């Protein structure tokens, strides 16, 4: 029997607006020093791994049943972690903050609506926007990657977007957005304002979270993740804080039992080790500040960073520098403005390897 040739996209009735697209994805290469996806380089302790193992074993005995559809215990735990007087009613959880963003777009955007963000920023915001048949409006940031409040308000007035995304600290630049700017955007926006705080825990002192603005702004949403500070990228757990009405609206689009019993118990167990896990954040912040100072002392341009990564440049051919780093076993990210590269903060040994490789790469 002759085998049929492999089917191509041309033969499939793929949605017209998806046809030309390409999937999101940083290269997942097996390299000695992976500093490309803003993970926390410190693995869970043996004590935490054992606690997760025991909790999962216990949960396994009930896996014939569907999980708690509303993840009540986990949401209470997340609210307690966030503080600010929040309760589980104001918190929602899903498989990574990407799923949270997807659910927000499903509820608040859609055909005939627009979402607006300040670029360069997290590329999943426009990607998820388009997948949800929503128009994307990218407003450029200033040369120093800050948001010009006047321009932001003018763009909001002009486009009347259903959702405004504000990433703070911003990926890939590391730039935190002042609360005053977020508040003025929240007052002016006709729809939802989503502050993506995936990197909030890494902010330098004096960079407050937008959580403080929630009581005054019912259409404000703050999204967070356990992938970064909590060193739980593999567990896939993201969450948001917002008014209870926003959480109730998300129930309209969430898939039944979207968050597995295993995910829920892993996340709650990790939260009970918050002190230990967040201990790595202080070390990473100090490593970041050292790396920024070192890069500047070596003559590189560096964006101020409130995150666990640093955007540095400027290179006439960043692709060549990226490749030479990779040749030396160091994987960074070719992302953001064309003359810059982004490096995630690793362990002290990984950061040292990056410094050596970078000097060799640009020599
Ligand atoms: N928001 C921002 C700004 C990010 O950089 C990332 C991860 N790269 C996410 C959200 C998504 O993270 P996760 O789905 O792992 O929670």
UniProtKB/TrEMBL annotation:
Reactions mediated catalytically: L-histidinol phosphate + 2-oxoglutarate = 3-(imidazol-4-yl)-2-oxopropyl phosphate + L-glutamate
Region forming the signal peptide: none
InterPro entries (alphabetical): Aminotrans_II_pyridoxalP_BS, Aminotransferase_I/II_large, HisP_aminotrans, PyrdxlP-dep_Trfase, PyrdxlP-dep_Trfase_major, PyrdxlP-dep_Trfase_small
Keyword Transferase: yes
Keyword Amino-acid biosynthesis carried by entry: yes
Pathway assigned to this chain's UniProt record: Amino-acid biosynthesis; L-histidine biosynthesis; L-histidine from 5-phospho-alpha-D-ribose 1-diphosphate: step 7/9
Gene Ontology molecular functions: histidinol-phosphate transaminase activity; pyridoxal phosphate binding
UniProt EC number: 2.6.1.9
SUPFAM superfamilies tied to this protein: PLP-dependent transferases
Class of this enzyme: transferase
Family label: Belongs to the class-II pyridoxal-phosphate-dependent aminotransferase family. Histidinol-phosphate aminotransferase subfamily.
Protein name: Histidinol-phosphate aminotransferase
């Amino acid at each position: 029997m002759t085998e049929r040739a492999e089917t191509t996209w041309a033969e499939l009735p793929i949605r017209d607006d998806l046809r030309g697209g390409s999937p999101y994805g940083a290269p997942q290469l097996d390299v000695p020093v992976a500093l490309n996806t803003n993970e926390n380089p410190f693995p869970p302790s043996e004590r935490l791994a054992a606690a997760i193992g025991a909790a999962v074993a216990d949960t396994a005995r009930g896996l014939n049943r569907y999980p708690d559809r509303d993840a009540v215990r986990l949401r209470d735990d997340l609210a307690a972690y966030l503080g600010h007087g929040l309760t589980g009613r104001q918190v929602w959880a899903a498989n990574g903050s990407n799923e949270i963003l997807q659910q927000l777009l499903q509820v608040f955007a859609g055909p005939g609506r627009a979402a607006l963000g300040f670029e360069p920023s997290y590329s999943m915001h426009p990607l998820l926007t388009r997948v949800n048949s929503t128009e994307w409006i990218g407003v450029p940031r200033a040369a120093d990657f800050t948001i010009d409040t006047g321009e932001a308000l003018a763009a909001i007035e002009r486009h009347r977007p259903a959702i405004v995304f504000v990433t703070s600290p911003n990926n890939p630049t590391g730039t935190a957005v002042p609360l005053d700017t977020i508040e003025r955007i929240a007052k002016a926006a006709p729809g939802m304002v989503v502050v993506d705080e995936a990197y909030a825990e890494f902010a330098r002192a004096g960079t407050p979270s937008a959580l403080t603005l929630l009581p005054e702004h019912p259409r404000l949403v703050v999204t967070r993740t356990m992938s970064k500070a909590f060193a739980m990228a593999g567990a896939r757990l993201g969450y948001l804080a917002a008014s209870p009405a926003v959480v109730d609206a998300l129930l309209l689009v969430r898939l039944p039992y979207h968050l597995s019993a295993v995910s829920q118990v892993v996340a709650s167990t990790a939260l009970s080790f918050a002190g230990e896990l967040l201990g790595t954040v202080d070390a990473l912040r100090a490593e970041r500040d050292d790396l920024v100072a070192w890069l500047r002392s070596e003559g590189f341009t560096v964006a101020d960073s409130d995150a666990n990564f640093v955007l540095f440049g400027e290179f006439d051919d960043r692709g060549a520098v990226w490749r030479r780093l990779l040749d030396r076993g160091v994987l960074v990210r070719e992302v953001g403005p064309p003359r810059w590269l982004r490096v995630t903060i690793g362990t002290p040994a990984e950061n040292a390897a990056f410094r050596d490789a970078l000097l060799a790469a640009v020599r």
